[in-house]
Amino acid sequence: MLTATDVKNKVKKYILKETLSDVNQIDDDTLIFETGLLDSMGLLFLIEHLKEEFGVETQDEELVVEHFESIKNIVAFVESKL
């Protein structure tokens, strides 16, 4: 079973890879949309990645920025679906 740390590490690794960011630029509370790391297309790719990596299905009503605005929030969202 995945731990919160496992989920966090996988999500952070994905975001770092997709945004070509340095590991020191992003922490668990970095606002990834506000800082321009991801945009709406990036969100779609992130949601697809969460589905492939963790089997997380995202419903239309769950597509709110609060669930995806930081690594901490993404991890909480994924954990709520596991």
Sum this structure up briefly:
By secondary structure, the protein is an all-alpha fold. The chain contains four helices and no strands.
Classify the beta-strand content into a percent band.
Answer: under 5%
What's the CATH architecture name? Orthogonal Bundle
**SS elements, strand count:** 0
Rg, please?
12 Å
Largest sheet: none
The run of helices and strands is HHHH
**Considering DSSP H and I runs of 4 or more, what fraction of the residues is helical?**
55-70%
What would you call the shape? globular
What distance separates the N and C termini?
A: 10 Å
For this structure, the CATH topology is Non-ribosomal Peptide Synthetase Peptidyl Carrier Protein, Chain A
Number of domains: 1
Overall pLDDT score: 92
Unreliable stretches covering 5 or more consecutive residues: none
Helix/strand class: mainly alpha
Give the full name of the CATH homologous superfamily: ACP-like
Pfam family, one: PP-binding
Protein name: Acyl carrier protein
